[in-house]
Amino acid sequence: MQNKILKLLYNAKNYVSGQQISDSLGVSRQAVNKAVRALRDKGFKIESATNKGYLLTGTPSFLCEEAVKLYLNTKLIGRNLTVLDSVDSTNDYLKKLGSKGAESGTVVLAREQTAGKGRLGRVWHTKKDDGIALSLLLRPELAPTEITSITPLSGLAVCRAINDFCMLDSRIKWPNDIIIGNKKLVGILTEMSAEFDKVDYTVTGIGINVGHTVFPEEIAHKATSILLETGRHIDRNKLVASVLEHLEQELVLNRCLLSGEALSDYQNLCATIGRQVTFMRSNRSISGMAVSISNSGELEVMLSNGTIVTVNSGEVTVQGIY
Ligand code: BT5
User: Fold this and answer.
1) In Å, how far are 75, 191, 193, 238, 266 from 151, measured between CA atoms?
2) Hey, CA dihedral for 12, 13, 15, 21, is it positive or negative?
3) Who contacts 138 (Cβ-Cβ below 8 Å, separation ≥6)?
């Protein structure tokens, strides 16, 4: 009911009487009063005036389930959505829900992670109310070898959402970072649970730096946030809704496969292409020019003799970017 009252007040953009709310939701005036009080406790600013009713004048600045749902306009992604105050890792939390049968499109967000993780056991920092930690569970009809498109498609979605919503010019550093200039704004980590020939579920974790003004010393030279880049405090609940809408467009509509338009859009936003890169192969360091992305999400690199090799792991050093 709280979600319905919020929607009514948000759409009205003006006072709505208690009677009108109770009539349209088919509940008592007392129930409306109680729900409004509960919403105020959650951080919504709702004014009430005699003979006029209720007016929504503010939404919480921190991540809040009701606020994300208020803005969300998706069919599958986020239909089942939870915001946690604090968790070790949203990916680990969601994987547990995945093994208990959580539906495709389930989203878990957290205001703080105490053991946020990157790839290969690395740490991802999410201090309380500075960053957004978001994980999305999908049950794609794919073989385990085909899930390589999920990270690039998610990168494309998040990059677009940030650029549209924050009016920024972020780009993708293959395979899983979103950067501004040469600093990291977003990290993405996809994990999966699969049997031999079929994916059970995937969990894609997205960490976005929103309100940071300082970072831990070891990443201070290579990390940035939306606040540092724009000087503005954006509405993080609206940003999450926009990210989820773009994820639905890229992942659900493309059936989790990177091809055609999505592939060319990804390449246009990919900052790695056109740069010198170095990677390891058979214990040797190899350098070349990143020229394109394959439709399974691999980086294609041209060596000095003109040969093209594909690289499928992210352990690539890109000249000019951290
Ligand atoms: C990543 O790994 O970039 C994937 C990060 C995924 C985080 C999300 S948050 C929601 C979900 N729940 C989780 O537990 N994880 C996911 P990788 O490419 O391995 O980069 C990790 C490296 O990024 C670290 O070793 C640091 O150098 C740097 N780093 C850590 N925290 C950062 C931050 N907040 N901003 C920028 N760089 C950071």
Assistant:
1) 21, 10, 15, 22, 11
2) positive
3) 104, 105, 150, 201, 202, 204, 251, 256
Q: Residues of CATH 3.30.930.10 domain(s) within the chain? A: 65-269
* Burial tier of 37 (Cβ tally within 10 Å: 0-12, 13-18, 19+): exposed
Q: What is the CATH number of domain 276-318?
A: 2.30.30.100
* pLDDT tens string 199-249: 999 999 999 999 999 999 999 999 999 999 999 999 999 999 999 999 999
- Which residues make Cβ contacts (< 8 Å) with residue 68, sequence separation at least 6? 78, 81, 83, 109, 237, 240, 241, 244
Q: Residue 244 belongs to what H/E stretch?
A: helix 236-247
pLDDT tens per residue across span 24-69? 999 999 999 999 999 999 999 999 999 899 999 999 999 999 999 9
Only one residue has tokens 């069919």, namely 75
Taking the centre of ligand 1 as the mean of its atom positions, its distance from the CA of residue 268, in whole angstroms, is: 24
Find out whether the beta carbon of 207 lies less than 6 Å from any atom of ligand 1. yes
Ligand 1: atom nearest CA of 116 is 14
Q: Return the axis-axis angle of helices 18-25 and 2-12, rounded to nearest 10°.
A: 130
**Cα dihedral angle (136, 88, 42, 227), rounded to 10 degrees?**
-80
**Separation between Cα atoms, residue 223 and residue 5, nearest integer Å:** 39
What is the Cα–Cα distance from 131 to 261, expressed in whole angstroms? 31
Topology annotation, domain 2-58: Arc Repressor Mutant, subunit A (1.10.10)
Q: State in Å: Cα 207 to ligand 1 middle.
A: 7
Q: Report the relative pairing of strands 107-110 and 81-84 from DSSP bridges.
A: parallel
CA distance 191 to 75: 23
Angle (deg, nearest 10), helices 150-166 and 260-269: 60
Query: Is the pTM for the entire model greater than 0.70?
Result: yes
Question: Does 89 contact ligand 1 (Cβ within 6 A)?
Answer: yes
